[in-house]
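Structure tokens please, single chain.
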Amino acid sequence: MKFGAKPREIWKTPAELGKKYNSWNTRFNRLMVLEHVWTKLTGEKEKFWKLTAVKGGVLYVSVRLSVARNELVGRRESLIRELNKHFDKPWIEKIEIVKDLGAIHD
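Here you go.
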């Protein structure tokens, strides 16, 4: 350490460390949980329903076949309910079906 430089902060408890990285860590953890739960809920359908993005409370899913699209439309509400069970407060409000990533930014 150079003379006159501010000494490096030393953490005394895990809570102090959590304060610095809490918002980033929380978002990252939520995405990891979402991806894992989505994979478990969709099972074989994962080949046809690709989790593309999350923006706000909207989950964007790209669908490969029209038959798979129709099934996703029918299961939307139950999927949202099942996904939200894994978070401390409801996060996913709706599921949007997209053809490509460009549709998310509009």
